[in-house]
Each structure stands twice: as structure tokens, then as C-alpha cells.
Amino acid sequence: MRAHHHSPETNHHGIDLAPMLDFVLNLLIFFIITTSFVKEAGIVVSLPQADTATYRESGNILIAVRENGDVWMDRRQVDLRDVRSLIERMHVERPDDTVVILADKQAPAGVVAQVMDEVNLGGIREVALGAGPSAGD
Fold it and tell me: Domains (ranges, CATH) in the chain?
């Protein structure tokens, strides 16, 4: 009887990394897509309190107005004149976007009104003002 010997080249049992790489790339794509859905304002403001404030799931573009009138979008300070063009670009990418304006309770009302106007001129009609629940809730 003759013994069969396998050469080391044909007996290669390695780990196939292709499925793991596919899985990791799919996770990466998933995280990139989900983080681009919400455009954060980038700063924390002291929201006014309102008894009739209600929580809404909509509002994937956040614009913050600080107490000194600075406007923040997408984690950076923007000029009021640039709000319309930024909103237009975002509106073309995702037509169903809505905007929530997070205005500090000390923010000038005129600046908040101008931001709302620029958002409407940019093509987004659904604009909400952010408010916190009243102290009693």
C-alpha cells in the first residue's frame, strides 16, 4: 500500500477574511449614512420654556441662534446671508427635510425672524421653534 502525502502548497488552510471585510464595510456605510441624516447645530443654547411645547420626531436640520445673535448650522458659525444657500443645497439633497430653530431665550427676536425667513426662502416650509418643557413638568 502506498501512503498519500500532500504537499504543503495544497494543504493551505487559512482564514478567509473576505466575509469579515464585507461585514465591516457594510457597518461603515451604515454609520456614515445614519450620521448624515441629522444636521446638528453644534452649540448648546438655553431654550425658553413653554407650557404647550410638544416633542416631535421631525426636524432633521437644526439651526441655533445664540444670545448674541450668532447663527450656527452643522457645527459651525454661519453668516445670516448664507443660511438660504445652505438650506437650498440641503433641500435639493433631501426634499423632505424640516428645520428646528433652537433660539436662546435671550436671542434677538429679529435675528430669529430673519433666520425663519431665510429658511422659507430656501425652500423648506416646515419650520419649528425649539422650546423646553415648563419647570412644572
Answer: 38-133 (3.30.420.270)
